[in-house]
Amino acid sequence: MLKSVVFDLDGTLIDSAPDLHRAANVVLRSEGLPEISFEQARSFIGKGASVLIARVVEAVGLQGDPDAHPRLLAKFMHEYEREPALTVLYPGVIDALARLELLGCAMGLCTNKPEAPTHIALKHFGLDRHLRAVASADTLPVRKPDPAPLMKVMQDLGGPGLYVGDSEVDAETADRAGLPFALFTEGYRKSPIRDLPHAYAFDHWDQLPGIVAQHFGALEA
Ligand SMILES: O=C(O)COP(=O)(O)O
Ligand SMILES: [Mg+2]
């Protein structure tokens, strides 16, 4: 039986908040504006770069300036499209992906990070060799929580399966796609675990192969 497993990227496979925070503050400094805190940056992640910069613009009180968003977003993309410097894989990710491969899973990615930095990060961390299909924020005209990118990745893998992510956006996306959701609890969610609809939850990647085996085993039984 087909075992499709699709992952979110930021806050799920990689802890990228430090690089996103750094890039946002490089932009703010270039504008002579006050920097944002790490906690602010972390809370702005989830709906892609454009929304992150909209929140930055609001945080520094520039929402009245119509040029601020496009200008800061262009600077941010320039700053962010480079090799990750402060980003790390969550512990156990590579082992878990190797074990999922042994279980015969077809794996893919559905992220709200734009294509260019997505592919730089996947290659940097050696994740690309495990992922047969990828949808980023700009792959389709719509992005998460619209279910279309997730459904496209599942289709590219051969059929529906499990979505694994860390946020409110991911839980909503899986729900709208009619797919089961596994919540990684150590990412960038803002709500309590119980408020995010999920079939499974895990706080360390060494738990995921067991969850996946149980999920598809139950379907086979
Ligand atoms: O870059 C973002 O805002 C979110 O990215 P993610 O969908 O991989 O969590
Ligand atoms: Mg995420």
UniProtKB/TrEMBL annotation:
Protein name in the entry: Phosphoglycolate phosphatase
Enzyme class: hydrolase
EC nos: 3.1.3.18
Transmembrane helix among keywords: no
Species, as recorded: Salipiger mangrovisoli
Keyword Magnesium: yes
Family assignment from sequence similarity: Belongs to the HAD-like hydrolase superfamily. CbbY/CbbZ/Gph/YieH family.
Catalytic activity annotation: 2-phosphoglycolate + H2O = glycolate + phosphate
Keywords from the named record: Carbohydrate metabolism, Hydrolase, Magnesium, Metal-binding
Annotated pathway: Organic acid metabolism; glycolate biosynthesis; glycolate from 2-phosphoglycolate: step 1/1
Entry's Gene Ontology molecular function annotations: phosphoglycolate phosphatase activity
The organism's place on the tree of life at top rank: Bacteria
Pfam families in the cross-refs: HAD_2 (PF13419)
Function: Specifically catalyzes the dephosphorylation of 2-phosphoglycolate. Is involved in the dissimilation of the intracellular 2-phosphoglycolate formed during the DNA repair of 3'-phosphoglycolate ends, a major class of DNA lesions induced by oxidative stress.
Cofactors (names): Mg(2+)
Amino-acid positions noted as binding Mg(2+) in the UniProt annotation, renumbered to this chain: D8, D10, D166
PANTHER family, per the entry: PHOSPHOGLYCOLATE PHOSPHATASE
Active site: D8
